[in-house]
């Protein structure tokens, strides 16, 4: 049976993680703003208390033992959760009901997120929001690391520890300059535009979404001429307005009729794209369960 005195403190764990990351005592000591001999003593004290070797050292190299590798992996997750708990306790003590970090793809900011924020503000006015536009994969990575609490993605599958909640099934719309000859009354199908340049969302922003768009072109039997790629709808609209091409976007990204681009709904094609909310089921943020009720209500509204 392993016994341990009370001599190991939170600072020992932080010191160990710093050395485990750098694998260099001097560099770790500089980042921690302590002396190298002092850091070395703290790590040796921790190893003595645990009665286990965590780091193998020689004049040239530092490397983790098997026990050290295990401890690094477990501590990173545990301490991150602990710091989050302490931060939440501080906020509650200051009278703040919660701090919520959102990630989202651009189309979620048209209606879904603004409506959600209004509901949250009305019910929990002391909740603070942090909003960051991110591609799908960055949101997944950030949810796994709990850098964000909830994301809005266009994905069909996510890792098992994440929950995916479909919010909006979206059709697609063709985007043209206002002076384009085609309009809602004379447009027949997309094949009429096979010789025109297209402006597309960059595939790296959302491979799943890009595949869905390409299925539309397959449906009409041609491969588009792609002249420009970007990750922002506003950039797409500006390029279209300037005559650089045309595009296809989710219908939820349509903007008002006073803009210099026009939209034609492609609602007769079978392809659809789904905007979903996603969160980590292991997230301990105390405000998150309260907010998820609003999210699930979006699904039924």
TrEMBL record:
One of its GO terms (molecular function) is DNA binding. Coiled coil: none annotated. Pfam families: HTH_1 (PF00126), LysR_substrate (PF03466). GO terms for cellular component: protein-DNA complex. SUPFAM superfamilies: Periplasmic binding protein-like II, Winged helix' DNA-binding domain. Residues 8-65 form the HTH lysR-type domain. Keywords: DNA-binding, Transcription, Transcription regulation. Belongs to the LysR transcriptional regulatory family. This is LysR family transcriptional regulator. It comes from Algibacter mikhailovii.
């Amino acid at each position: 049976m392993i016994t341990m005195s009370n001599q190991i403190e939170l600072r020992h764990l932080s010191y160990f993680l710093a050395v485990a990351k750098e694998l260099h005592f001097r560099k770790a000591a500089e980042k921690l703003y302590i002396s190298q001999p002092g850091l070395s003593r703290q790590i040796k004290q921790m190893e003595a208390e645990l009665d286990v070797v965590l780091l193998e050292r020689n004049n040239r190299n530092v490397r983790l033992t098997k026990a050290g590798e295990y401890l690094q992996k477990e501590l990173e997750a545990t301490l991150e959760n602990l710091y989050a708990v302490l931060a939440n306790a501080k906020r509650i003590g200051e009278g703040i009901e919660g701090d919520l970090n959102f990630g989202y793809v651009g189309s979620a900011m048209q209606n879904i997120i603004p409506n959600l924020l209004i509901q949250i503000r009305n019910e929990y006015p002391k909740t603070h929001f942090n909003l960051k536009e991110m591609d799908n994969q960055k949101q997944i990575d950030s949810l796994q690391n709990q850098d964000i609490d909830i994301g809005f993605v266009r994905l069909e599958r996510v890792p098992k520890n994440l929950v995916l909640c479909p919010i909006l099934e979206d059709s697609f719309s063709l985007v043209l300059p206002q002076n384009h000859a085609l309009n809602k009354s004379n447009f027949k199908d997309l094949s009429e535009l096979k010789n025109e340049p297209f402006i597309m969302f960059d595939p790296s922003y959302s491979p799943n979404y890009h595949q869905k768009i390409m299925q539309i072109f397959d449906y009409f039997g041609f491969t588009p001429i792609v002249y420009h790629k970007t990750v922002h709808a506003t950039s797409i609209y500006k390029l279209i307005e300037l005559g650089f091409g045309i595009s296809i976007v989710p219908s939820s990204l349509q903007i008002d009729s006073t803009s210099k681009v026009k939209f034609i709904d492609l609602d007769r094609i079978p392809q659809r794209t789904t905007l979903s909310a996603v969160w980590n089921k292991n997230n301990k943020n105390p405000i998150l369960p309260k907010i998820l009720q609003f999210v699930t209500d979006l699904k039924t509204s």
